[in-house]
Write a structure and sequence with these properties.
The complex is a heterodimer. By secondary structure, chain A is an alpha/beta fold. Chain A has a single domain, classed as P-loop containing nucleotide triphosphate hydrolases (Rossmann fold, 3-Layer(aba) Sandwich). Chain A contains 8 helices and 9 strands. The two termini of chain A are 33 Å apart. By secondary structure, chain B is an alpha+beta fold. In chain B, 53% of the residues lie in helices and 16% in strands. In chain B, the strands form 3 sheets. In chain B, strands 1, 3, 4, 7, 8, 9, 10, 11, 12, 14 and 15 form an 11-stranded mixed beta sheet that branches. In chain B, α2 (15-49) runs antiparallel to α10, α2 (15-49) packs across α12 and α10 (274-314) runs antiparallel to α12. The two termini of chain B are 32 Å apart. The mean pLDDT of chain B is 87. Classes of the chains: A alpha/beta, B alpha+beta. Chains A and B meet through α1, α2 and α3 of A and α1 and α11 of B.
Chain lengths: 227, 421
């Protein structure tokens, strides 16, 4: 139960294509900050899709936060993701027709369990608090189209963090930022993950950041499908 | 609730294409409901024009034609009925009352009807309402004229004004009976029927202006008579009427009376039951109505197809949005319901907009139609037919929404969290 991620003999491919993932074993302790790296095409985003339950493993077992994703239906996996996982994309993280506040609040409105974990505070208050922590508290009313890329990524982090999900998955969230801003962003992300007691899986092909993490995983080493 | 909020905000975000789509659906729905409204209104207006008249009698010819020229002031009469024949049927034991009509002249596009006091006494419209005078008195003298409400208001006539009658029933006649002008003695209350657009004189008046016109043209020079000549006469002999309305003592006699009149040997006559003739007319134009309705239904379908195209083409640029929704835990079903809901919202907004548009157009067009065609289209609150149409439009929007929704569903499953091209 102390494992956040427990992968056994996972194999995945798109349709009838070649194997993209072939991972005999990969585990991650709860509370760890893992840096997952590998070149483009090594299956990073695909692995995240499987962990988030959007993609279904063809073979093997994927257990996330003690829940065997491989034995859940796709609707159950959607519900599981809504409840337990916060996700940050590389870019274009925000829904253009929602305000900053509505974007942050989205997971809490999508899932009752996430809402219940707001500790009695309202969705708005929690969103505002998170935005303050990530130093974008003054942007809440703005349309997202007026934000800089760095600001957008912070909004996305707030959205991933709201309602204290146990696992935060970030897919190259800093690759569109300047170097200085990357570190600042990461510091804030770590701080909030710690506050919430969340496990972080951070994916990048850029190894300059790896020193900041407690665990480093090279995907080409664990994924036998990569030649 | 979340999905509904998302759908509304997404539509508002694409305000331009949303309003275009809603506008085109609204226009097509307005057309559909408008046509239906005008159709029903026209029928109602027609059947409200005459009430309690059991038979309309005229020279043999087309039944619908007789109805049109006698009651609705449309088309022209062909033959007349002699006064003696009229008198004979007027005294028939089964007949309670008659109203004689002498037609064939006009005043500045309005029909002139020669009749007598029986018109004011017996004519009924819209559920048995009688003719009433707004001012003055019913015409009874040879050169008295009573005006329908619209004639008086459109031409600006008042009591005491002189009115010249034109031979024939065109908008502009060139053979005027202007040597014998009539004097306005009464103006009728508005009835919202063709009565408003007619000019009523006496049968004697019709005879008087036609002295010397027996062979169809103006009298030879030297044979003209003036108003004073006519007024000096002791009695004007009425020779013919164009048609007459009959009310029976007992309605059970109507069919037998109709048969007797049709079989009359004195001259070729015809009697029609107004309701039956109207039904015949509706059957005749029923095909056109059905055709029109089919066309308007297709117009609505085209409007909805426009919506489908607009939603479908927006999907590609919304793939990112779908991936984000998936990432925060929206299942494919939520994606489907979002798009179906957007489609339903567009269709519903279009339907309601169309309904509003119909009433705006109807209230703006009502006086114009009345002035141009003489038909009063009543404006009624939306009935079951309108609600059925609106329901059908929203249902069609709902069903059509599944086309982009299923496309988005497949794309969302395929894309997962990464947008693949």
């Amino acid at each position: 139960m102390s494992l956040a991620i427990d992968i056994r003999r996972l194999r995945f491919r798109y349709g009838g294509g070649p194997w993209v993932l072939d991972i005999p074993e990969l585990t991650l302790e709860r509370g760890e900050r893992a840096f997952l790296f590998g070149p483009s095409g090594s299956g990073k985003t695909t692995l995240l899709g499987v962990l988030a339950g959007v993609l279904e493993a063809n073979e093997g077992e994927v257990t996330v936060l003690g829940e065997a994703l491989t034995s859940l239906s796709s609707a159950q996996r959607d519900a599981f993701r809504a409840q337990h996982i916060g996700y940050v994309f590389q870019m274009f993280n925000l829904i253009p027709y929602l305000s900053v506040l509505d974007n942050i609040a989205l997971p809490a409105r999508m899932d009752p369990a996430r809402r219940a974990r707001l500790d009695g505070a309202g969705v708005k208050e929690t969103a505002a608090l998170l935005a303050d922590h990530l130093q974008i508290g003054d942007l809440l009313k703005k349309p997202v189209t007026e934000l800089s890329v760095g600001q957008q990524q912070r909004v996305a982090a707030c959205r991933a963090l709201i309602g204290a999900p146990e696992l935060i998955v970030a897919d190259e969230p800093t690759s569109s930022l300047d170097f200085d801003r990357r570190e600042a962003f990461l510091e804030l992300l770590f701080q909030e993950c710690e506050r919430a007691g969340a496990t972080l899986v951070f994916v990048s092909h850029d190894r300059t950041l790896e020193g900041m993490f407690s665990r480093r995983i090279s995907l080409p080493d664990v994924n036998k499908a990569v030649l | 609730m979340l999905v509904f909020d998302l759908a509304l905000k997404s539509l508002r975000n694409r305000a331009f294409s949303t309003s275009l789509t809603v506008g085109s659906i609204a226009l097509s729905v307005a057309l559909l409901i408008g046509v239906e409204n005008v159709r029903v209104g026209m029928r109602e207006s027609f059947s409200n024009t005459i009430s309690q008249t059991d038979l309309i009698v005229g020279a043999k010819g087309g039944t619908i034609q007789l109805l049109l020229y006698s009651v609705f002031g449309m088309g022209s009469p062909t033959n007349n009925v002699t006064w003696d024949t009229y008198r004979e049927w007027d005294e028939h034991p089964a007949v309670e009352w008659t109203i004689p009509y002498g037609l064939g002249d006009s005043h500045r596009g309005f029909r002139v009807i020669g009749t007598n006091e029986d018109f004011y006494r017996h004519y009924r419209y819209r559920g048995g309402q009688a003719i009433a005078l707004a001012e003055g008195r019913p015409g009874s003298g040879v050169f008295d004229v009573t005006l329908g409400a619209d004639v008086a208001s459109e031409l600006g006539y008042g009591l005491g004004d002189e009115v010249a009658v034109t031979h024939g029933i065109g908008e502009v006649g060139f053979l005027n009976h202007d040597q014998m002008p009539f004097t306005v003695v009464g103006i009728l209350d508005k009835t919202f029927t063709p009565v408003d657009r007619a000019v009523y004189v006496t049968l004697e008046g019709i005879e008087a202006i036609h002295f010397g016109w027996e062979d169809g043209g103006p009298p030879m020079p030297g044979e003209e008579r003036t108003r004073e000549d006519v007024l000096a006469m002791d009695e004007i002999e009425i020779t013919q009427v164009t048609s007459f309305f009959v009310g029976t003592t007992n309605r059970r006699d109507v069919l037998r009376l109709q048969r007797d009149i049709t079989d009359y040997e004195g001259e070729p006559l015809m009697a029609v039951i107004p309701g039956v003739a109207l039904n015949e007319m509706w059957q005749g134009i029923g095909y056109a109505e059905t055709g029109l309705r089919v066309v308007t239904i297709f117009v609505v379908l085209v409007g909805l197809l426009g919506m489908l195209v607009s939603l479908y083409t927006s999907l590609n640029e919304r793939r990112r949005e779908m991936a984000i929704l998936r990432a925060v835990g929206a299942g494919p079903n939520r994606i489907v319901s979002l798009l179906v809901l957007e489609s339903v919202c567009l269709a519903a907004a279009g339907a309601i907009g169309g309904l509003v548009l119909v009433y705006v157009l109807l209230s703006a067009g009502q006086p114009i139609v009345e002035a141009q065609v003489g038909l009063f289209i009543p404006i009624r609150p939306p009935g079951s037919v309108e609600l059925l149409f609106l329901g059908a439009v929203v249902t069609a929007g709902f069903l059509m929404g599944f086309v982009p929704a299923l496309k988005a569903y497949r794309t969302a499953l395929h894309d997962g969290l990464a947008v693949r091209v």
